[in-house]
Specification:
This protein is α/β, with parallel strands linked by helices and about 300 residues long. The protein contains 10 helices and 14 strands. It has a 6-stranded mixed beta sheet with strand order 6-7-8-3-9-10, with helices on both faces. A 4-stranded antiparallel beta sheet has the order 2-1-4-5. The chain is elongated, with a radius of gyration of 24 Å.
């Protein structure tokens, strides 16, 4: 199956800059995939998304969405994407529904109508359904200025999905949201992805949000420094290890030394498994242990190690 997002040697250097903001990166995203683009502030994530959504021109290289070149066919690209940027982009002088209606009209989905009840039934039904799913039924016709931050984020999700885009770009979509709203928002995004096979490209600083991604791409200073499934990214630099302790610490330390088992001792004994299973290690140790904890590396552990290395 052909990729729905294709990036080849994409480069962007801003005028007067000493280095490239995006430095010849390449990746591909399959239809229906959940793809996470991670990196520290200034790594080039937002620049990459801005190029792929046609709001910024590349210096060189190519980007294609659903087969359309982002430079040569920007209108076709915009028809195929939904976007939620870091900064809210709603018109505070309009109601929630008016923001959605004008977005739908701009995309050419429906003819202009000055009020909601004159819009086609299909549009009205879609708005009611999305508002019900996101819990905005009571507020959808209220002015945006009365919305909380979480409600505004939900409305941006509604607006970005009204034209049923095959690709959804989420640039820090949950920044500033409370944990309950973040959870509800992700439940809905996953529901949309499952039902519509929507491709999701996410940037986030909440690394637990990227744990469920099919593919993770970590960039730093404009370059890709790690790429693959979450399991592969975690295995790239971080190993599973044990934290152990014993009442007789001197005996335990002497036994680990005698068995040539590497360890560090910041507080508890940290033992690298180095390919051993936990069972194999415990069978080899005769000193009675008081604490045994297995540490499986998280995506955050791998991310921090990768960024520090790069």
């Amino acid at each position: 199956m052909a990729p729905i997002i294709e990036v080849e040697n994409l480069t962007k250097r801003y005028k007067g800059a000493e280095r490239n903001a995006v430095d010849s990166i390449s990746f591909a995203v399959a239809p229906g995939e959940f793809f996470a683009l991670l990196g520290p502030n200034g790594a080039g994530k937002t620049t990459t998304i801005s190029i792929l959504t046609t709001t910024l021109s590349p210096t060189s290289g190519t980007g294609r969405i659903a087969g359309y070149d982002v430079v040569r066919n920007p209108s076709a690209v915009r028809q195929n994407v939904g976007i939620i940027f870091q900064q809210p982009s709603l018109d505070l002088n309009l109601t929630g529904e008016e923001n959605i209606r004008f977005h739908a009209i701009m995309y050419g989905l429906y003819p202009f109508r000055p009020v909601f009840w004159l819009m086609p039934q299909a549009y009205r039904q879609q708005v009611h359904e999305l508002a019900a799913i996101l819990g905005l039924e009571a507020e959808i016709f209220h002015p945006i200025k009365t919305f909380s931050g979480g409600m505004r984020r939900k409305l941006e999700i509604m607006r970005s999905l009204i034209h049923r885009p095959p690709v959804l770009f989420l640039d820090e979509p949950t920044v500033g949201l409370d944990p309950a709203t973040r959870r509800n928002l992700w439940q809905y995004i996953r529901q949309v992805q499952s039902e519509s096979e929507t491709t999701v490209l996410l940037t986030t600083h909440y690394l637990e949000e990227a744990e469920a991604a099919d593919t993770i791409c970590i960039i730093n200073t404009g370059r890709i420094v790690s790429y693959g499934t979450p399991a592969l990214v975690k295995a790239d630099l971080t190993e599973e290890y044990l934290l152990i302790d014993a009442a007789d610490r001197a005996r335990l330390q002497a036994e680990l030394t005698r068995l040539n088992i590497p360890f560090t001792r910041p507080s508890l004994f940290r033992v690298e498994l180095n390919g051993r299973s936990v069972h194999q290690f415990l069978k080899a140790i005769e000193t009675p242990l008081t604490i045994v904890r297995t540490h499986a590396p998280s995506l955050e552990d791998a991310y921090l190690a990768i960024v520090e290395r790069s």
